[in-house]
Amino acid sequence: MTTARTLFAEGLRDHLAPALRAMGFTGWRRSFSLPDVDHWALLGIRLGHADDRVVRYTVVLAVTPKSAWAGPGLRPDPATATGRETWRSGIGELMPVGGEVWWQVAPGPRWQVGLEDTVAAVRHYGLPELLRRVEQGAGVETYLTQAELADVNAALELAEVPRIRRAELADKALELHGAWQRADVVAEEVLRGAATGFLSAGDERFTAVRCRDTRGRELWVFPAGR
Question: Strands 31-34 and 39-50: what pairing?
Fold first, then answer.
């Protein structure tokens, strides 16, 4: 029987890598990048458990200014944190699940399912966010960490509204990202209250709160004084 390691190598070579290249990535093995003059816009395949019965892996994305990278190697390894990134995230944080996501390859008739899911996740969540990060460059600043958002997220959970995944500053606005939908009037009203709280702090770095879904699409804007 063909081992999981062999199937993973085959799937990466014949399925995942060609799909990534069709999206505009270049690279080989488990490290890929989007062409950009000023940044390394990277996608890496990080292995978890790997033996002859099963291979578990996830996807990591990162943006590193080329001016900040002096090696080792031609470019950073996206699967390993270097401390020089302006942004780094596991793909699960960009998806509705909001946590770590691991796929697996194991011998059997459906061994390619995980690879197909990976391609879909990169196409719909990873690639758009990576492009957004490169386009905005240094214009995005983390506003609050997950620990600092704990109280707000606890209130959202009580109202059965998905938590805030990321809170960032960009273009004089506080951007909140989460697994919300435009048609969810409860989420809109609860987030309006949260936005009022953020705006009442009087932080001069932003004058509006923008709520976006996990694919970066704008849902609601709550300006100050409205």
Answer: antiparallel
The CATH T-level fold of domain 140-223 is GMP Synthetase; Chain A, domain 3 (3.30.300)
Residue 164 to residue 58: CA distance in whole angstroms: 22
pLDDT at 195 over 90: yes
Angle between the N-to-C axes of helices 150-158 and 185-200, in degrees from 0 to 180, rounded to the nearest 10: 150
**What are the backbone angles phi and psi of residue 50, rounded to the nearest 5°?**
-150, 120
Domain residue ranges in the chain: 4-138, 140-223
* Cα–Cα distance for residue pair 38/97, rounded to 1 Å: 32
- Model pTM? 0.72
Q: How far apart are CA 165 and CA 215, in angstroms?
A: 12
Amino acid in the structure at residue 119: V
Q: At 162, list the tokens.
A: 């998905």
Average pLDDT over residues 13-27: 95
Amino acid letter, 222? F
Q: Which helix (H) or strand (E) holds 63?
A: strand 55-65
The tens digit of pLDDT for each residue in 98-142 reads: 678 999 999 999 999 999 999 999 999 999 989 988 877 655 677
Q: Which residues pair with residue 218 across a beta bridge?
A: 212
